[in-house]
Write a structure and sequence with these properties.
The protein is mainly alpha-helical. The protein has two domains: about 90 residues, 2-Layer Sandwich (Dna Ligase, domain 1); about 130 residues, no CATH class. A hairpin with a 6-residue loop joins strand 3 and strand 4. The protein is about 50% helix and about 5% strand.
Length: about 240
């Protein structure tokens, strides 16, 4: 009975167009989860498998992944469209978005190649969250990369654990993964989410500044930036008194 029910449900799904919304900050697996609901689990599995295949054709020469290389936006998926065609539309939108920011596969910024710029932008997307925070977050990342050593970004640890948001515990910081920027120096191997034009522009045109730290300081999500660790601790105290958990 379960098998028959699934077959009927899959047939119904295949007969109608569905809308998939790729928000900045979503991972490929989160997009696939939407497709699983709307198109069924086999479609979603093919989507992730095709993403690996199409990554080999990317002009950004990614590390076997289309993570971060799909454009945010609303996609109407027709009944006849295959997972590969859906991915093709998403990759095409990313290419158009990148061009509007001045990013091309040959762009370099402060020693970063184009793919590394997308990686940095994905971390900016998760860490800055709001557009108003992103330029200075980008500068912090570039400054830390220039200084050498670990970036120490919580969002990369959460990505390694397959989580989106939440408190990062001391135990999580010990996660053995190339995406743990507390245990590894430099950028992650791939982007950690879909990026907005705002995040890309923040990396491409980061404002000058000496900042090395930042933290949220109020319920509006505003972030304060610091040059020294002592300043960072003072900003963290502001967070503690704001009542934000």
């Amino acid at each position: 009975m379960v098998a028959v029910g699934w077959a009927v449900a899959s047939t119904v799904l295949a007969r109608r167009s569905v809308v998939v919304v790729v928000e900045p900050g979503l991972t490929l697996r989160e997009v696939a989860a939407q497709l699983s609901v709307d198109r069924g689990a086999p479609f979603a599995r093919s989507f992730l498998g095709d993403a690996v295949e199409l990554a080999r054709e990317s002009p950004y020469h990614p590390a076997g992944s289309l993570e971060g290389l799909i454009g945010p936006g609303r996609y109407v998926v027709a009944p006849s469209e295959s997972p590969r065609e859906v991915l093709g539309a998403m990759v095409g939108r990313f290419a158009r978005e990148a061009r509007t920011t001045g990013l091309s596969p040959t762009t370099t910024v402060q020693g970063l190649n184009a793919y590394q710029i997308v990686i940095a932008a994905s971390i900016v997307q998760k860490e800055g969250y709001y557009a108003r925070n992103m330029p200075k977050v980008a500068r912090v990342i570039l400054n830390r990369l220039a200084r050498g050593g670990p970036l120490q970004m919580d969002s990369t640890v959460l990505y390694a654990l397959g989580r989106d948001g939440g408190v990062v515990t001391h135990a999580m910081l010990q996660t053995r993964s190339p995406y743990n920027t507390y245990l590894n120096n430099g950028l992650t191997p791939t982007p950690i989410c879909a990026v907005s034009a705002t995040a890309l522009s923040a990396v491409l045109h980061a404002p000058p500044g000496p900042w090395l730290y930042f933290t949220v300081v109020n319920r509006r999500g505003d972030e304060a930036f610091a040059t020294t660790f002592a300043q960072q601790l003072a900003n963290e105290r502001r967070l503690a008194t704001s009542g934000v958990q």
